[in-house]
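Lab meeting minutes (informal)
Scribe: AK
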Amino acid sequence: MKRKVIAITGYIGSGKSLVSNFLRQMGYKTVDCDEIAKQISEQPDTVCAVKELLGDDYVQNGHLNRKAIRLKVFSDPELLKEYQALFFGTVKSRLNDIVSQSRETVFVEIPVIDAFDFPWDEIWLIQCDRKILFDRVAARDGVTADSVAEILSRQKQPNPTRTILNDGDLSDLRKAVIDALAQAKL
């Protein structure tokens, strides 16, 4: 069977990480682009570049204040593009390395699907009811509904190969993932 590279994407709070966790538990290889970006954000040159772009208030003890940065950059489209440009090239490069070394299907959790061009074999879009999404993100991140709305307004949704609904409980989501795997013949 040909190795596939499948993107797992969706709005913040939609359940991308839950889907990735299910896939990992089932023995599939998963990669988290946010985790790659976090590793990049710990590099001193990245910290300096962010400090230069946003100012001293967004770096604390040599580390990025991700929550403050998220609130700042998602409120300004041009600043968001500049901030993302600091990461996307390196994330793509590391993702290419991981994929090229794998002989098996790789699932890639990627919140910003249009971050860079990539030859996805499939794109799985995780969706849920907007109220559920707002409640999840507000509870998880301690942010206001307005902050969630601002972030959502900046996230683009792709034309997916498959859509997985995450409006129910974990067993419903697991079943939806298993159904998607069957449809993808994996």
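Next up, CB showed the second protein from the same session:
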Amino acid sequence: MSKQDTENPNPNQLNIELPEEIAEGIYSNLAIITHSNSEFVLDFIRIMPGVPQAKVKSRIVLTPQHVKRLWKALSDNISKFESINGKIEDKDGMDVPFHFGGPTAEA
């Protein structure tokens, strides 16, 4: 066995580090999605009841290909979740009183 084999027994394996401050996560109850021809921007926002202003808590910029993979992974995970826990209620009616411009969708 070579030295390289002992350091990384599976060269196709990706080791991912999760720093403690990131592991805690950030709560978001609104996502604003905008896009250009080369990227998607996902802004995650926390809206608090009775507070007329909200801040973007996290912004993720992705290529269109990565967004499509994320969409497929989310769809698969939602199906698995609903098969165990029941249908997730989709409650529309949250009107966001602002517009960032450009193509927008809410999640």
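CB comment: The first strand starts at residue 30 and ends at 35.
No objections, moving on.
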